[in-house]
Structure formats: C-alpha cells, structure tokens
Write a structure and sequence with these properties.
By secondary structure, this protein is an alpha/beta fold. It has a single domain, classed as Rossmann fold (3-Layer(aba) Sandwich). Helix content is 43%, strand content 18%. The strands form 2 sheets. Strands 5-6-2-7-1-8-9-10 form an 8-stranded mixed sheet, with helices on both faces. The two termini are 31 Å apart.
C-alpha cells in the first residue's frame, strides 16, 4: 500500500471516536444461521446490532431473516452506493451484505473508501457482529472477521470439527492484533463438549500461546438453542473490554487496514 493511501487512511482513523462496545466475529460452519439468530437475540435485549455478513452478495437471499440482497459492499467500494443504501433493516437489526469480489479487495483506493464509508455509521450500533463466510479466511474478503477483537468459533463435536476449529483459530491468531476466542459447541452433549474444550484449549495454550473460553453448547432442539443464544447474548454485555480500547471503532478500522494490506499471516507450526 503506498504512502499516500496510508496517510489518507490515518486521517480517517483520527476521526473515529468510541463506538460499538463489542465487535465480535463468528467463525465456523454456520449452516443454521447462528450469527443471525444471535443478532436477533441481542436486539431482543435492547441492543442496536449491525450484522456484517461476509457470505452475502448481491442476488443472494438470507433465509432466516427473509431478506433479498440487491446490493453488497462492492457497490460501496465502487462508489455506486452508500453503506446506508445497501444496509437492510430486518428483524430489528441492520444487515450489511459484505461479500466482495477479489478485484475490489485488492484495490488500495477501495480500502480508503471503506474507511470513509464506515465513518457514517459511527454511534449507530451497540454491537457489530461479523458472520464470516464458511471459507472466509481463504476467499476474497476485507478481513472484517480477522479485524474483530472478539471471536466466537463454532465447533462441531467431532474429531473433524475440532481439527477445523483449531485450524481457524491458528490462522486467525496469526494475523496482526490481539483477540480473545470463545468456543461454542454443536452436535454434542455438554459433558463431552467440556472434555473437547479442555483438549482443544490445551493445544491452543501449548502451540498458540492463547487460552480460549468455553461459550456453551447449542442443543439441536430449536427452542433450547434459542435459550442458549439468549444466555450468550446476555453474557456478551459483561465481556470485559480490552484496556487498550481495541473494541473502539478506530482500533477496528486500524486492524482492518492492517489485515487487508497483507494477507500473509504468520502462523505457529503444529
């Protein structure tokens, strides 16, 4: 990224003030739209929520939220639309389709437009929830999930699911910036989930020098799962904020600029 672009972005960053209390990414196989259900649960508890969905592009339909996507964030980065014009109010939250094309992702000028566009959203939300696409760490993306200081990792209760969860934690932890991981299990009983958590946490501690938290278990029954998400949403308000204000919008954008400037994360061998 050239010096002029960096200077422009730095000028924009200085304009950002304290914003959303929590910026949280959700990684993992989210075929059941858990990110959207969590966003709705947060809304039900009085929070103003922005759901950034990296899996949604123009022409897609969000089944759970019954929303058809006419424009995505690529339109903003091409200066065709504003963020307010592509945002979709639905189920009490604001849905922002954040799928992009690689050509746009690689453009330095587009990154600066991204910073300018998000400046218009300052002060509007209590929580920014980022739904990473299933392969978001390897697909065209502005790295919203990689820029979030809080990360919820969906873990299937199988050996393959644990392996996949560790791989995502390893890749995410290798990108610039500190972050806190919380593991939310699916497809297993709570007793087994806690055993799997202890094993995975031990590996993370040994090889990645980080310690994730246990975020709970999502039951297969829809109503029971809704209760779990309600409890998770309520607990999010008590999550400690980083002392260095990493949850401020300014820090989020600084991290976003960093991870999109170089997508060659440093990983720990294991």
């Amino acid at each position: 990224m050239n010096r002029t672009v960096i200077d422009q972005a730095e000028g924009l960053r200085r304009m950002f003030a304290a914003d959303a209390a929590h910026m949280v990414a959700m990684l993992g196989d989210d075929q059941d739209d858990i990110a959207a259900a969590l966003a709705v649960a947060l809304c039900g508890q009085g929070k103003k929520v922005l759901l950034l969905d990296e899996a949604l592009r123009a022409g897609d339909n969000h089944t759970l939220l019954s929303s058809f996507v006419r424009h995505d964030i690529s339109s903003v980065l091409r200066s065709e639309k504003s963020l307010q014009e592509i945002a979709i109010p639905t189920a009490g939250i604001t849905l922002l389709p954040a799928g992009i094309t690689r050509a746009v992702q690689n453009a330095d000028a587009a990154r600066v437009r991204l910073l300018a566009a998000f400046h218009a959203l300052i002060g509007m939300f209590d929580v920014v929830l980022i739904h990473a696409a299933p392969s978001a760490l390897n697909r065209p993306s502005f790295g919203f999930a990689l820029a979030a200081p809080e990360v919820i990792v969906l873990c299937k209760g199988t050996s393959e699911g644990i392996t996949a969860a560790y791989a995502q934690i390893k890749t995410t932890a290798g990108t610039p910036g500190d972050r806190h991981f919380r593991l939310l299990f699916q497809g297993t009983e709570e007793a087994m989930a806690k055993i799997l958590f202890r094993n995975l946490a031990a590996v993370c501690r040994q090889h990645l020098k980080l310690m994730p938290d246990f975020a709970g278990v999502l039951p297969e029954q829809r109503f029971a799962a809704a209760d779990t998400l309600e409890a998770l949403a309520a607990g999010m308000t008590a999550w400690p904020l980083p002392e260095r204000d990493d949850s401020r919008f300014e820090a989020f954008m600084r991290r976003l600029l960093s991870v999109t400037g170089s997508r060659r994360p440093t990983t720990t061998e294991h």
